[in-house]
Amino acid sequence: MFDYEEIDRTVRDNNLPLQKIEGNEKDALLQRLYDGFIDGNPRALWESLRYVPHRIDCHMDDPYWHLPDIIDKDVVLYFIIDYWNTDFVVFKGRMEDIHTFIGDCDGLDEFYLMTPDYQELYSITDHDDLYYINVNKNKPSTLNY
Question: What pLDDT, on a 0 to 100 scale, did the predictor assign at position 64?
């Protein structure tokens, strides 16, 4: 479970140039996330994905260690930290900075990385699963994955 002070500390201590998304912009971005990837209002977003996700095998490791092999360090993404689907902290930044954040921030359970064109989503779940969806390639879900 994340803590707002820990999130602020991580950005500050690592001098990360992440853009925090707030207010109406955050609301609109989260609406795009739900409209494009999520069915309903589940406790955990990954439980109700609209598409069958591709599960990326991390060989029983924490998916964090595999992100640099999967996503180029210069790719800009929305970084969406989910707090039991009751609140979200959203940043926009380069994968390299997001990866630094994830490695230093205590208490992250699940989060999402979404491309700015809203076509691709990576999800790291509280079960250490790493899922990937491309809306142009993945099949619609029947929620049986």
Answer: 80
CA distance between the termini of the chain = 25
The confidence score (pLDDT) of residue 2 equals 64
How many whole angstroms from its chain centre is CA 77?
9
Burial 39-65 (b: 16+ CB within 10 A, else e): eeeeeebbebbbbbbeebebeeeebee
Whether 116 contacts 127, CB under 8 Å: no
Which is nearest to 32 in space by CA: 138, 96, 112?
Answer: 112
Match 């095998």 to its residue by tokens. 57
Copy the structure tokens of residue 131.
């899922």
Tokens describing residue 103: 């490695």
Is the pTM for the entire model greater than 0.90?
A: no
